[in-house]
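Researcher: I'm preparing a figure for a lab meeting and need a structural model of a single chain. I don't have an experimental structure, so a prediction will have to do for now. The sequence is pasted below. Please return the structure as tokens so I can convert it later.
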Amino acid sequence: MNTSSAPRPGAAAEPPASRLRFTRIVPVAFITYSLAYLDRVNYGFGAAAGLATTLGITEATSALISAVFFAGYFLFQIPGASYASRRSAKRLVFWALILWGIFSALTGVITSIPLLLLDRFLLGAVEGVVMPAMLVWLTHWFTKRERSRANTLLILGNPVTLLWASIVTGYLIQAVGWQMMFVLEGIPSIIWAFVWWHLADDRPAAAGWITPETAAGIERALDQEQQGLPPVKNYWAALRDGRVWLLGLQLFCWSLGLYGFVLWLPKIVKEGLNQGIGATGLLTALPYLVGVILMLGASHFSDKLQNRRLFVWPFLFIGAAAFYASYLIGPTNFWLAFACLVVAGGCIFAGYGPFFAIVPEMIPRQAAGEAMALVNSLGALGGFVGTFIVGWLNSVTGGPGASFLFLAASLAGAGVCMLLLSPAARLKPAAAALVLLALISGCAGVPCQTGPERLAVYAPSVKFADIYFPHPGKQPILKYNHDVDIVKFKGRFFAAWNANATPAEGVPGQYNYLSVSDDFEQWSAPVRLF
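Model: Understood. Here is the structure written out token by token.
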């Protein structure tokens, strides 16, 4: 798909000291978020290595202990974002690092199930403030043209930690036991808190490692990109935006698949391979290695093309298909089924950087933090539900087959939500339902040329078609067309796309349009949906 190369209103020019900021800010963010994910790995390994047996708990109760973490995580998202936006992300993350190191280490010494439930809830509450605080922090340092890469390098702390920690934790359990593993892996967070305090600065103006002129240039670039966003009265107004809730629903479905996969993969692999926990750790690391590679590629091209949706929904559908393939193969061929899991796991992580760049490009920064927190908190709720349902399905069915179907459906649902998203228009539920009805039948065509005053597509085995191409000599109604989705439903073709009455993307006046065809040649006049 080709789009106009003209500068877009509200798009900031490349700010100064870009390379310096990436080398100074991103590693600090990466390590901080990486440590936050360490306990997500070690709890799954601790449960597989004997935690349930030692404490005398059932598999269903173990799933509840895993999932209760997300209850605390859910409740403290918006308060954390609000504090980071209005006061200090630096101070908030400092205390969070210390507290989650303590709570994580306590997991290895607690012998009471109620106390373990309380510990996991408090750990979730402390870690719940970190993700929105880090996303807010990055919006103070990076512009729209850099944000997908910055977000990706932050969130790489997720699969990279899962990669190395899967290996280290497995062999650490063999060396010192699962109890001491929890204690040892809680210490790095406490140490890093003081490193964070020394290296992190809330805003460019507070940083001593760049000149005042450079700091002012960064602030100007960030201010400039705010000019193209529609005003929002306050963050309560942003939280009522249907697009924010749609993104939250998407992350909910996405997290159903993610956390069900992460927390139960070690057990699934261990039972399927029938080998020791060390070998399980090595195999479990492979999906996360693929995820790292795909995340870097997706974020790079998303920033280069300034397109977010295109680098999110395809990976979700591929991941869903891979989970389904693993279900069909089942226990008859462990290695082939595991290869499908590697593909699915990699695709789960691929689109996170572009995804978390969407909200700051829709909502002004005075409310973007709370909006991102709402989206992420709904994702945490999905994690809560996903871990419990996967554990329950494994317990009831006696195997992972039903879980793979559930994970596949979750990722497919997340992909549909992204297809429905209109970044520059308010979402109306009735219109969204009509488009969803068409989209559920599957894609029938792909965009080949979009841009000012034209919208053209190509359908495999059919032909090229101009969906919107005004008659010569007539004034075009729509002067910027892009992001088209083509589907076939009950014998008719439906085209939904974003368009604007002015020759630019992402400025006021952009809406979603729908056109219908019976033969892929003659198309109805564009009708505005929302």
